[in-house]
Write a structure and sequence with these properties.
heterotetramer, A: 179 residues, alpha+beta, Sufe protein. Chain: A, 3-stranded antiparallel β-sheet, 6 helices, 37% helix, 15% strand, globular, B: 418 residues, alpha/beta, Aspartate Aminotransferase, domain 1, Aspartate Aminotransferase, domain 2, 7-stranded mixed β-sheet, 4-stranded antiparallel β-sheet, 14 helices, 39% helix, binds pyridoxal-5'-phosphate, binds FE2/S2 (inorganic) cluster
Chain lengths: 179, 418, 418, 179
């Protein structure tokens, strides 16, 4: 659930319980917008139109309406290259940029493992060490911002959809839900 | 709170009453004896506090808000969905749709599921004991679609006539709509059995739980119903909110009945796609403070434990039934014992019109309701224009039952002129 | 209360702020600057007190109750109808129907008047700046009846394109539905003129007053509209309630959209007759506490005087527009001056996504909204996916506008990396 | 508006405004149920089925659903006799009983004047002296019980409807409204 971020100076005679419950964390903003994220946002990797022969797939973040399209160049069971285009916030763009790096030259199973890893990260569950995560580690802070989790996951859900379509399976239910 | 002592389900009524400041009031100089709980219950302080806390410390519109208040309000709002799910034993929070109350919930099913699925010649089966809110919506959709509205009879004892129910349940019945508890007779319908019969005929089962949710343990999956509707204000929650439970696969296939903010996927001039359930059915700004306060009411009910509440209310009902037996010229409608009976008592006096009864009793501080109770078909069946109705809640006491009987006798004497 | 000094319409903002305890809060350690008033306003203590008084001292269901609480609650409930009548200049209290909010009110007109009066080939005219709540209901009823939905364009300045409006207003137009004030652009539409044009073509005029009722003096008869909808929660009232104004002759001829308690004349298995307006449209237990609190909000608005409020909010808007001019890379949508403009400011930054703006500003204590604001057709027209929106209310100050600008610059710098 | 009839012992520290505002009137019940009313209720005058040649007219009190039928024997412009039957509370039955007495042998104009008189009485406005009112004076107390006003007026509205039908005019709008 969302962390309590509201506090207030108690007025005289006030019941303490009406006052914000959690200690404030003034540097949470930096947890969300880590330097690595801002770098990817300002200079995204592989942000370009998909090639004519790419496997393409799009989806929309229902919360904000932002849309993201992936272009995937496959070679057998192997992802040769992923590019993306679309509109979105820094988190979604940075996440997509990082994703194109990390799944490059991975096979489908490895990519799916990355999808699971990032989804778990958004629930605060770590499946890989910070070292293994590399830049992706910077997405950890998003978990504290529930409304932004969908931003971070947008590209990953599109990838999941694309791979499912590729091998005929359907993506796990759940992430698509909500509005 | 541990008002229900463990392993011995006896409610500490005095402790409960302390949670309801309004009960200390005096009316016309007499202590208030509030016995109109079937119309609306009072609210415990925790419910009022939940609402005040929202308005005073994080009031904001929910969903989509990126700032602290809105995030907190949204999270609390959605948490209540899970609380209601737990309260009624739904399979998933998505099966809970917030509405203005029972009436809107039942209309939603009639207009969405009904309009889409009813054809000329289809049948809708209701019972003679339905509240207008579970009668008129079906009549309206029947008229619109050419379906036929049928009505199962009530026995002289005020129970559903099972034979007549079966006779009216045909291969063309698409919908069976019935009250879990009658708001006039107190009758608890055997919903699980009736649902089984209805399902074998291929009908869906819509249950009006307005009088049950605050009084009985409710488990929609054990009941086997497809839809279940109730109002917060009859279960210690605020006015302006209620809920519809719907089986996920049914809800998923349903069209929204209202368009607006929050229920859409994408809107273009040409076409609009809908959001997933339950948001598809929650158009516009919802009663946010009210939903949050409903959450507090659910906590309150679960905390006290509904078996314990039920036992207390059964004791009151049984005591009242016994005392009423000695009231000359007073007829009590509905089942004669507390078996299959909720704490709602309707009565008619031979000599005194229900409205006169209610007026005199009011002057004694006793709040009862007189009228047709939005159940005109049932009034016709009972052969009366109106009844006087006393209905109990968990904060009522046997002393209050005594005050009620005293006042009833006072009213009788007053009009009889003895 | 005499917060508006006589003959000099200047609001004593500090005195007003004292009526809103929530404004003293700190968010993330910063003083709260609440600028999401177009989503929902905060409520003054008087509104919360009215609700608490109801729940704590005379909570009961309204109508038909013969005892003291219920009589008092019923009288208070109906009094609010007259208050709302006075607020918007309706001819009679019967012209006011209580609803859950603007969305339900607009759906009511679409489903009742629309379904009964629209035929294949008829047209409904809306504008590109409509909120989904004044767009989707028309699209739904158009689909159902075979009517055609047309949409009048918005100019680059964010005003309704009058030429295009006229071009789309045809002899087949039965309904013109438009916002009094746009929730994205702040544009105040010239409703009186447009209504006159619509009426000469024989169309009825439905106005979405959600963003107007709490900010502008509203006079439905001067506007000449046939229906007018608004929500309490956007005008200092509680969530869960709003109102629909409808011309009495139109309402009188309309069918109810929901069946249930309180909206009937007589109910039999064969047929049901309806109650008179407005009760015909108020099925089931209404949001009683909320209606009563809406009454307190109306008193509050009338007490402060809407001309005075408007003048204050115009000053804030004009100050904000001027300061935003100096923000590099920030585009402000909507009319460039305060003429015909309400206190709603949408903006887009060249470098920063609206949601990132909102997140950073939240950390500075500044609550603004980012998103499509339930106006996707307008977003498409503006060529953006979302905007960041600041919207003012009577308790906002120029100091808060400064805080907003500072925070905006902070966010810009943060993402630009300078 | 309805008189404030709710009061409460103020608890310590309580804001006085939350406490019932008006002084209680313990004998208001007797104002409503005056002995004359109870007499008419217990032994109503002219309560019988209408004759075959009577002008009959019925209406229903929308608040409670009670119904009342009048049988009127006319002779030219003159009301020879009125009888009633139906179901209702003591107020409605007593009012009907009194009405049958008072309009007997009156012409239509006089009867209409009585209708106006009683309607005004329900608004607390007196048009006739207590002497002129006779038994009807006992209905005065009903004005303090807004939900019961329709009870007292039920028979009078039916009479109004009957007379309007008789001379082709329609009853004044207003009383029929509401529920
Ligand atoms: C212009 C406009 N119309 C309609 C609505 C819908 O109001 P509500 O959500 O209260 O039903 C809103 C508010 O969101 C609005 O700003
Ligand atoms: C059995 C029953 N059904 C439906 C309703 C309608 O509930 P609400 O008025 O809260 O919509 C009521 C209450 O009046 C009821 O008792
Ligand atoms: S706000 Fe749209 S993707 Fe983040
Ligand atoms: S209560 Fe029905 S007429 Fe008085």
């Amino acid at each position: 659930m969302v962390a309590e971020k509201i506090d207030r100076v108690a007025r005289p005679g006030e019941i303490p319980s009406a006052v914000g419950e959690a200690a404030r964390e003034p540097d949470e903003l930096d947890d969300l917008y880590r330097e690595i994220i801002l770098d990817h946002y300002r200079c995204p990797h592989n942000k370009m139109a998909p090639g004519a022969t790419d496997l393409t797939c799009s989806d929309r973040n229902p919360i904000c309406g932002d849309e993201l399209t992936l272009g995937i160049e496959m070679q057998g069971p192997c992802i040769r290259r992923v590019c993306f285009e679309g509109r979105g916030c820094s988190i979604s763009m940075a996440s997509a940029s990082m994703m194109t790096d990390v799944v490059k030259d991975k096979n489908v199973e490895e990519a799916k493992d990355w999808i699971r890893t990032v989804k778990d990260l958004m629930k605060g569950v770590g499946r890989k060490s910070d070292d293994e995560l590399g830049d992706i580690e910077a997405l950890k802070g998003v978990a504290k911002f529930p409304v932004r989790v969908k931003c971070a996951l947008l590209c990953w859900s599109v990838l999941e959809k694309a791979l499912a379509r590729q091998d005929g399976t359907r993506p796990a239910h759940g992430e698509e839900k909500g509005r | 709170m541990a008002l229900a002592a463990e392993r011995q389900p006896v409610l500490d009524v005095q402790a409960v009453r302390d949670l309801f400041p309004i009960l200390e009031q005096r009316v016309h100089g007499k202590p208030l004896v509030y016995l109109d709980n079937a119309a609306t219950t009072q609210r415990p302080r925790a419910v009022l506090d939940a609402m005040a806390e929202f308005y005073e410390s994080y009031n904001a519109n929910v969903h989509r808000g990126i700032y602290a208040f809105s995030e907190k309000a949204s999270a609390r709002y959605e948490e209540v969905r899970s609380k209601v799910q737990a309260l009624i034993g739904a399979a998933a929070p998505e099966e809970i749709v917030f509405t203005r109350g029972t009436t809107e919930a039942l209309n939603l099913v009639a207009q969405s599921w009904g309009r889409a699925n009813l054809r000329e010649g289809d049948e809708i089966l209701v019972t003679e004991m339905e509240h207008h809110s579970n009668f008129v919506p079906w009549q309206m959709v029947a008229k619109e679609t050419g379906a036929r509205l049928r009505c199962a009879r009530v026995t002289d004892e005020g129970r559903l006539d099972r034979e007549d129910f079966r006779a009216n349940l045909t291969g063309r019945t698409r919908i069976v709509a019935l009250a879990h508890v009658s708001n006039v007779l107190g009758t608890i319908n055997p919903v699980a059995d009736l649902a089984r019969e209805a399902h074998t005929r291929g009908a869906i089962v819509v249950v009006d739980g307005a009088q049950a949710a605050g009084h009985l343990p409710v488990d929609v999956r054990a009941l086997g119903c497809d839809f279940y509707a109730f109002s917060a204000h009859k279960m210690y929650g605020p006015t302006g909110v209620g809920a519809l439970y719907g089986r996920l696969d049914l809800l998923d296939a349903m069209e929204p009945t209202m368009g607006g903010g929050g229920m859409i996927g994408e809107v273009t001039l040409e076409r609009t796609t809908w959001a997933d359930v339950p948001h598809r059915f929650e158009a516009g700004t919802m009663p946010i403070a009210e939903v949050i306060a409903l959450g507090a009411a659910v906590d309150f009910l679960l905390d006290l434990d509904r078996e314990t509440i039920r036992a207390h209310e059964e004791r009151l009902t049984s005591y009242a039934l016994a005392r009423l037996k000695s009231c000359r010229g007073v007829k009590v409608f509905g089942p004669p014992t507390t078996a299959g009976r909720a704490p709602v008592l309707s009565l008619a006096s031979h000599d005194v019109h229900p409205h006169d009864l209610a007026t005199v009793m009011d002057r004694d501080g006793v709040a009862v309701r007189a009228g047709h109770h939005c159940a005109q078909p049932l009034m016709r069946r009972l052969g009366v224009g109106a009844t006087a109705r006393a209905s109990f809640a968990l904060y009522n006491t046997t002393d209050e039952v005594d005050a009620f009987i005293r006042s009833l006798e006072h009213a009788e004497a007053f009009f009889r002129g003895s």
